[in-house]
Amino acid sequence: MVSDDVMMSVAEVSQESVTRRLEKYDIVKKPELARLFPPGQYPHTRRCAILVPLFFHPSDGQLHVLLTQRSSTLSSHPSHVAFPGGVQEPTDADDTHTALREAHEEIGLPPDDVTVVAHLPPCFVRNNNSVYPVVGFIPSDFTPKPNPHEVSLVFSVPLRTFTSDLVTFSSFDLKGSKMLYPSMTIQVNEDRRPVVVWGFTCSLCVHVARTILGPFKRVNLFVGEAAELSLWRKEVDGGFRDDLDDDDRDDNVFRDWMALYHVVCKATRPNAHL
C-alpha cells in the first residue's frame, strides 16, 4: 500500500494501478458522481468529449500523455495545445464514441487500439462547452498521422512532469472571484519553439497526474475570498468527506475541478448572477 503522502515510483505504476486510482473519480463507475452531472443539466452548453491518451514510453518506461497542437488556421483555439476531441454528434453513442471518433479523425488513432480505463468529471471550456474526459491507454508504438487541417503537432510528455515545479499557476477573474489556472512551457524538440500547455489541458494533466502519481491531495483552484465562499463548497459532495478546512486531510484531488465546473456553468447562463 502506497501512502497518500508520497509519490508513486515508476515501478509502482501499471495500467491496473492507473485504473484503480482513477476509479475514485469515474462518473460512469460511481453513481454518486454521475448524479452530479445529469444529461441536459446546463442547456446553454454543448456536450463534448476528449481522449486523454496514456502509454508507457519504450525509452524510459515512464507513463506519458499524448498531446496535440491545434492548427493555426482553426477558428476555435488556434495553435493551442489540446487533447484529441470535439463536439458530440447525434450519431455518437456516448462520450467514448465521441472521443475515439475524434482521435481517429485528428491523429489517425484506430478506436480498437484504445483501452478505455476511466470517464472523468467534465470541465467548462469556452465557448460554452461541457467537455467530458475519457482516459485510455494506447499502444506504446503508436505512430500519429495528424490531420493537417486540424493538428500541426503531436507530442508526448511524461505525466510526472505535471507534478513538478515547471507548472505555475495564474489567476483569472470570474465575476469578481479569483480562480486559478495552471500553465507549463515545454521544449518539444530542438527544431521548434517551446510550446505552452495551459488552461483546461494543463489543468486536466495536473489532476490526472496527481490522482495517479501523487501527491494525492486536492488541487486548489479557488483563491482569496472565493476559497471561503459557501457558494462553491456546496456545489460538490459526491460522497466524499468534507475536509475543506484542512488541506492536509483533503484527498479529493478533483474536488475544486468539479466545483468549478458548476460555478462556471451557472455563471455563464444567460442573465446569470453568482
TrEMBL record:
Pfam families named in the record: NUDIX
Highest taxon of the lineage: Eukaryota
* A GO molecular function held by the record: coenzyme A diphosphatase activity
Name the Gene3D superfamilies for this protein. Nucleoside Triphosphate Pyrophosphohydrolase
Q: Do the record's keywords include Protein transport?
A: no
Occurrences of domain Nudix hydrolase (ranges): 45-179
This protein's UniProt keywords:
Hydrolase, Magnesium, Manganese, Metal-binding
Q: Which cofactor does it need?
A: Mg(2+); Mn(2+)
Q: Which InterPro entries match?
A: CoAse, NUDIX_hydrolase-like_dom_sf, NUDIX_hydrolase_dom
Choose any GO biological process term that the UniProt entry carries and state it. coenzyme A catabolic process
Asked whether the UniProt record includes Hydrolase among its keywords, one would answer yes
Full protein name: Nudix hydrolase domain-containing protein
Starting at the broadest rank, the lineage of the source organism is: Eukaryota, Metazoa, Spiralia, Lophotrochozoa, Mollusca
